[in-house]
Amino acid sequence: MGSAPSLDERHYVREGATQTAVKILVVGHFAVGKTTLIGSISEIEPLSTEETMTQAAEPVDDLKGVQGKTTTTVAMDFGRLTISDRVVLYLFGTPGQQRFVQMWEDMARGALGALVLVDPERLADSFPVIDLIEHYGLDYAIAVNHFDGTPLRDERALREALDLLDDTPVVTCDARDEKSSAAALTTLVRYLLDRTR
């Protein structure tokens, strides 16, 4: 195993640019695509704490609708995305299982907002996630991760099902696709900027 590269300012800030670091949470229920989204968009090698799922997790991790999933995040994902010469996003992906909720308080500290990934076929799984985000007082946008073979859902029906405020952004994305993931994050950032003006 080689030694880790040294980290200095050049890895994080473009030469001559003054940047503002913005902490964003990427959240969602179990197996919704958080690790995939961060991996598709991060301009640095993302930190991932994916581990192989074992039989011990079978009683607590509901694999209904996600057959074939063999790994899961056990701590967090981390990535970075520079969206302008002035703004860089630090992306923190949370584990989706209920047993990891105690980590959320630390991860939410200092976050400007959250991108909530939603599977339209498992909307009820998103309720506890949205409740937590609201509990920590974070503004958020909903990104409906469109999985292969699933029909597109009507935005109004999604808003009603998730009991969203009228101004909460809702976008459809493909977490595997860099441009689609970037568009979802851009929607969130614009919304956050509007909320701080």
TrEMBL record:
Alphabetically ordered keywords of this record: GTP-binding, Hydrolase, Nucleotide-binding
InterPro entries reported for this sequence: Gliding_Motility_GTPase (IPR052705), Gpn (IPR004130), P-loop_NTPase (IPR027417)
Name of this chain's protein: ATP/GTP-binding protein
ATP-binding among keywords: no
Gene3D superfamilies from the UniProt entry: P-loop containing nucleotide triphosphate hydrolases
Organism: Streptomyces coelicoflavus
CDD domains: Ras_like_GTPase (cd00882)
Any one Gene Ontology molecular-function term assigned to this protein's record: hydrolase activity
Domain of life, per lineage: Bacteria
Similarity section: Belongs to the GPN-loop GTPase family.
